[in-house]
Amino acid sequence: MRAVCEDFECELAEFNGETNHAHLLVNFPPKVAVSKLVNSLKGVSSRLLRKEFEDLRFAYWKGVRLWSGSYFAGSVGGAPISVVRQYIEQQARPSV
Length: 96
Prior knowledge:
- This is Transposase IS200-like domain-containing protein.
- It holds the Pfam family Y1_Tnp.
- Strand 1 (11-18) and strand 2 (21-27) form a beta hairpin.
- The protein is an alpha+beta fold.
- It starts with a helix and ends in a 7-residue tail after the last helix.
- 42% of the residues lie in helices and 16% in strands.
- It is globular, with a radius of gyration of 14 Å.
């Protein structure tokens, strides 16, 4: 995730999640399209996870995707970063 963010000139400030979703706190410049960043994060992570975990390689094939096509992105420019970080840190780590 961090390498993809760096490719987009973004900073992955926090990463956490639950068994069925992930939370990423990303600082990014206005020139970055959120949809392109998210699609790249999902695509790269899907390829790497399938490569590392054989069960995923065979469970998701023939058009079935590892990640859902949807996502939520919110702007927190007005909220203190400490509050956002605390929320993300309190989430459980995703497990495969």
